[in-house]
């Protein structure tokens, strides 16, 4: 449902082969904006210094975007972190996280040491960078 623009560019280049014309991040941004005319399936979500590409028809509110920004550094977030950082009530944090889970944009680690962690695979960029080494 979500991936970084950089990862999308790498996947497109990988799928096209080494003799195909290069595809820039700007090319992808323009293509996604044109696809948006067809419906809410594709979109761009700026999250801190990263741009995420949304490829599922789910509506994301400002609450969702703020939680994505909070999770950007570690790749996951907890209800306690949301409550402490954003000053939200527990129920509000759980509603946002439940929506991300339902849409397949987050994974739940219920066995985390202190409390459940909600991982956002689209933000695993540091892990993707280590795969090639």
From TrEMBL:
A GO-annotated cellular component: ESCRT II complex
Gene Ontology biological process terms from the UniProt entry: protein transport to vacuole involved in ubiquitin-dependent protein catabolic process via the multivesicular body sorting pathway
Matches recorded under Pfam families: EAP30 (PF04157)
Family matches, as PANTHER family: EAP30 SUBUNIT OF ELL COMPLEX (PTHR12806), VACUOLAR-SORTING PROTEIN SNF8 (PTHR12806:SF0)
Family (UniProt): Belongs to the SNF8 family.
Record's protein name: Vacuolar-sorting protein SNF8
Lineage: Eukaryota, Metazoa, Chordata, Craniata, Vertebrata
